[in-house]
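Appendix B. Raw example, untouched.
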Amino acid sequence: MLFKKLYAISMLLGFSLTALAQQYPFQNPRLSAEQRADDLLGRLTLKEKVSLMMHQSPAIERLGVPAFQWWNEALHGVGRNGKATVFPITMAMAASFDDALLMEVYTAVSDEARAKNQQAKENGKVRQYQDLSFWTPNINIFRDPRWGRGQETYGEDPYLTSRMGVAVVRGLQGPDDAPYRKTLACAKHFAVHSGPEWNRHSFNVTDLPLRDLWETYMPAFKALVQEANVEEVMCAYQRIDGEPCCGNNRYLKQILRNELGFKGLVTSDCWAISDFWKKGYHEVVETRSEATGIALRAGTDLECGSDYNSLPEAVEAGFVTEKEVNESLRRLIIARIKLGNFDDDSLVPWTKIPQSTICSAEHRALARKMAQESIVLLQNKGNILPLNTQEKKKIVVMGPNANDSTMLLGNYNGFPMYAVTILEGIKAQYPDAQYIEGCRYVDAPANEGRQNRRRRDNVNLDANPFGNVNTLANPEARNTSARDVAKSNVSDETILKKAADADVVIFVGGISPRLEGEEMRVNFDGFRGGDRTSIELPEAQRRLLKALHEQGKKVIFVNCSGSAMALTPETETCDAIIQAWYGGEEGGNALADVISGKVNPSGKLPVTFYKNTEQLPDYEDYLMANRTYRFFQDRPLFPFGYGLSYSQFVISNAQYANDQITLTLANQGNMDGEEVVQVYLRRVGDKLGPLKTLRAFRRIPVKAGQTTHVTFPFPKTSFEWWDEASNNMRILPGQYELMVGNDSDAKVVQTITI
C-alpha cells in the first residue's frame, strides 16, 4: 500500500524535472538499464572504470556520475548508521518460524534505509553505511554451534534458511514489478562457509561430497537467486579445493552463473582478495595484480578493499582483459540504475518515505512482536511459568545479562533510541523485583596480574573487526566492557546471602556478543577468536545456579546467546529454562511478556541443542555426517524445532493428498496460543541421506479449548531429493515418509508413508 501511494506521487511529478538534467543516454530513464550501462561504459577511461569497482566508488564529476557506497549493513536493522530500530538477531528471528513476519521486519528495515539515505543526501554527502546496497542476509548453514558468527544466520536447516532468506530479500528489495529497487540485498557467503573464524584467511575446505554441497550448503543460495531474484552475492574468505572462493571458477562461473542462473553482481568479502597474495594467508599468487586478475576473471565484479586499484597493471600484464573489466562493471552499473542512482528523486517512489519512519512507534512494536515470537521455552517444571503478577512472591533478578543493554543488540547492529534491558522489562511488570548483580560470564584467571588484565582487554568491543559501533542506548543500564566479562567476581556466598529470602530467582545468563562474533580477539577459556571451543555454560554461572538450587530456590534460567548452548546440568538445577537469544531493543519487554503470561511462548529452536561438546564432530570437518538434526545419530538435549507452550497443542488426522497436507490442530490448554506445525521428509532406504529434513512449516493461532482444521500446500517439488545417478537434486521416484509434528523428534510426529 505504501509503495502504491509513493509510486502515484512520483508519476504525478512525471519526467519533466529529469529531462532538464539529462546530458547523456545513460541518464535517460526511458532507456533500458542495459542500454544505459553500455553508454556509460563507452565514456569511461580504464582508470575511471576501476574506481567504480571498489566498495567506495567515487563520483565521476565530468560525467555527472554520483559517488556510491556499496558496503552497508542491515543484518537485523540498519547497522552502523546512527539511530535505527534494532530487531532481534537473525538466529532469534529464525526461531519464530514466521517468514511472513520476517518480511514485515525487513520491509521496515528498508523503509528506514531509504529514509536515512535521503537524509544523508539532503545533508550533502552519502558516507559509508548510508547508501542502498546491503550485505545481508547471511544464509550460510550453521553446521556447528562453535561458530561465533552463527548468530548471523537462520540456523542449521536448508529449508528454513531458504524461506527466511527469501523473505529478507523481498522485504529489502521491494516488489519485483516496482520500477526501481528499494535497496539491493546480498546473499552471503558463497558458498560453503561456517567457520572457524581464527583461520578463515588460510582455511581450505577439501573433499566436500557433491551430495553435501547440493543437499545442504546450496539450497538457500538457489532459492534466493531463482525465487527472490537477489541482486548481489558475496563470495567467502576461505578456499575450496585449493581455490579461494572469490577466485573460484567452478563456484562463481559454473555453479552460480551457469547452473543457478545468477544474473546479478558478485562482491568480495572485505579484503578477501588480499588473502590471495599476502604472506601467511592463502598465498595462491605472489602479486596483487595477479590476485586481481584471478578474482575478476572468475567473476568477482566488486571488491570490498583496494586491491582492484591494480587492475590496470593486471590488464597490461595480460592477467585480465579490459573486455572482462567491462563485463563486471556493466553488472555494477545496471544494479545502480535499478536503484535509481542516476535518476532524479522525483522518479523514485522510495525517496518519498518520510524520515519519521526511522525508529517509529510502529517499528518498535514490530521489534517487540518479533522478539516475543523468537523466545523459546525449553523447560517448565511444575508449570512454574507463567509467574502470576498478583501473587506476593519475592523475585530476585540476577546474572551477567540481566542489566546489559548492549548484549541485546548482537553484532552488526544499529543504535536504538532506547534498549529495554531484561531487568527493566521484568520490573515494569513486577515492580517489587530486587536486582542482585551476581556473577560475570566467566571466572577471572586465578592470578589477576597485569598480563591477564591486558589479555582480557583484547575482547573486541564491537563483536566484529570493523570498529566500535555499540553504544549505550540506556544510560541506567550497564554497558559490558571488556574488563566486565571476567573481572573478579563477588563470592557465591555473598550472592547467596543477598538472595536468601527470595522465593524465585530469575537468573539471566549465557554469553554475550562480547565473547562470540566475527574474528574477535577473545582468549578466555572456552572461546577462541570469536568462536567457542566449548558450548557448555561457563563454570562461573553453572556453579552459582547449582548453589541456588541447593539453597532450595526456584530458579528460572534465561539463557542469552547467539546459538546453541549445552545446558545438561541446568535441566536439573533450574525449574524453567528460557532461550532468549540477543533480543533487540525490545528484548526486555518481550521476555517479561512471556514470563508473566501476557504472551504464550511459541518460538522453536532453529538449531539443535546438544548435551555437551563431546557430541560434536571435528569443528574443521565440513562433511555433514553426524551434524545437525538431519544427520545426528545420538540424542540431543533439545531437538531442532523444539519449543514448549503454556498450552497443550495436539496434532491429529494428518493426511497427504492432491499435493496438500491436511490436519487437525487442537489447543487443549486454557490460554490462546500459536503452534508451529512442522513437516519433515525421509526417503525410505536411503542410508546416506538425511534421517529427516524439514520441507514445510506453518505458524497457526488457536484459541484456548478450540480446534482448527489446517490445509497447506505440499507440491511435488517438495520431494526433490539427491539422485546419485545424475549427481544432482531432482524429484526422485521412490517411497517416502512424511513426518508431521511439533518438532523434529520422532517421538512427537505422525508418519504418512507415500
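End of appendix B.
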